[in-house]
Design brief:
By secondary structure, this protein is mainly β. It folds into four domains: about 70 residues; about 70 residues, Immunoglobulin-like (Sandwich), CATH 2.60.40; about 70 residues; about 80 residues, Immunoglobulin-like (Sandwich). It is built from no helices and 36 strands.
């Protein structure tokens, strides 16, 4: 093409002379001889889209600048041009100088959208996972919300607006979206404690009637007998529960409780003695009975003796077997006499 000396054009002749009157830098320039005709091989695109020139072989004069155009189909994006298998341009419209045969291919990729799953409100697990999730255009994505123990699912919010109250939903990714699940705490379970009217006379706490408590509450029970009465037992749902006046129950279900009181009975003593030889029933001793109790007294003399009488609180009974009613503390004495030569001796 030319000679260049010290960076400036010197000659276009292949052979020339140079006078060395100082230091010089010489450079020769050569041009590739243009082919008379070159071929553009437009290969079928990768992905979906239209190209210009169309797929096929196209002849051009050497040096021609060809305009490459790529138009993606619905749901697709143009990514880049490949020339001889190497990245050439990322522009949809590019220019290629045809100074030799060329292989050209357009590359299209599916359009994608991002589903951003936000941290839930409340307590629960969500799918897809929290963070950014990438999907192709038109993908149908299932969203699932699972509440933790003690929580309920409330609703899904998409792009900040209410979307559905179903735990599992399907959304179509025709654009990038933001999703958030909302959970609410379950209301506490309420159980009823029914305090029945006591048997006998006395007061109870809680009072007679129905009382509502949150699940797991420990409820103290207290029973106070009236004068002349004593506490007997607590019954829970009809079964004996405790003999203690002060107990507690845990409200894990509906329950019914009943306190029973018994009337206190005055006590009296019976002292039994004997004089002489014989046996008595009850045996000699001191006994405690309810006031008003009836007691059978029996006296049996030993051999050589005979029964004489019972002496009970100043009253004499000459029969061996008697029944007495105990209205107060009582002393009973059985007397036996010896059959000694017709003499009555103890």
């Amino acid at each position: 093409d030319r000679w260049q000396v010290n960076g400036a054009f010197y000659s276009s002749a292949e052979s020339t002379t140079l006078t060395m009157d100082n230091d010089k830098t010489v450079k020769a320039f050569f041009n590739e001889e243009p082919a008379a005709s070159v071929t553009l091989y437009m290969l079928e695109p990768i992905g979906q889209g239209q190209i210009q020139p169309l797929a096929g072989d196209h002849e051009y004069n050497a040096g021609t600048v060809v305009t490459l155009k790529a138009t993606p189909s619905e749901g697709w994006l143009f990514d880049h041009w490949l020339v001889e298998g190497a990245l050439y341009s990322s522009d949809k419209e590019a220019y290629l100088t045809m100074n030799t045969d060329r292989n050209v291919r357009a590359v299209f990729v599916r359009k994608t959208h991002v589903l951003t799953m936000l941290e839930p409100s409340g307590s629960g697990i969500v799918k897809p996972a929290i963070g950014d999730n990438v999907y192709e255009e038109g993908s149908e994505v299932t969203l699932l919300a699972t509440p933790s123990n003690g929580w309920d699912f409330d609703f899904w919010q998409i792009d900040g607006a209410f979307f559905s109250s179903s735990e599992q939903i399907i959304i179509t990714m025709n654009a990038s979206k933001t999703a958030r699940a909302f959970f609410i705490e379950e209301p506490p379970k309420i159980f009823t404690l029914t305090m029945a009217e006591p048997t006998g006379q006395g007061s109870v706490s809680p009072a007679v009637g129905n009382h509502n408590f949150i699940e797991g509450t420990t409820v103290p029970l207290s029973a106070t007998p009236a004068d002349g009465w004593g506490f007997e037992a607590w019954y829970l749902d009809g079964s004996h529960y405790s003999d203690s006046q002060n107990v507690s129950v845990v409200m894990d279900r509906d329950k019914s409780v009943l306190a029973t009181f018994v009337q206190e009975v005055e006590k009296v003593t019976l002292e039994i003695y004997k004089s002489g030889r014989g046996t008595v029933s009850p045996d000699v001793g001191i006994y405690v009975y309810d006031k008003g109790a009836e007691v059978n007294l029996s006296a049996t003399p030993d051999p050589g003796y005979h029964f004489e009488d019972w002496f009970v609180d100043g009253t004499t009974y000459e029969v061996a077997d008697i029944t007495i009613t105990l209205e107060w503390d009582t002393i009973a004495i059985a007397t036996f006499r010896c059959n000694c030569g017709g003499l009555n001796q103890e």
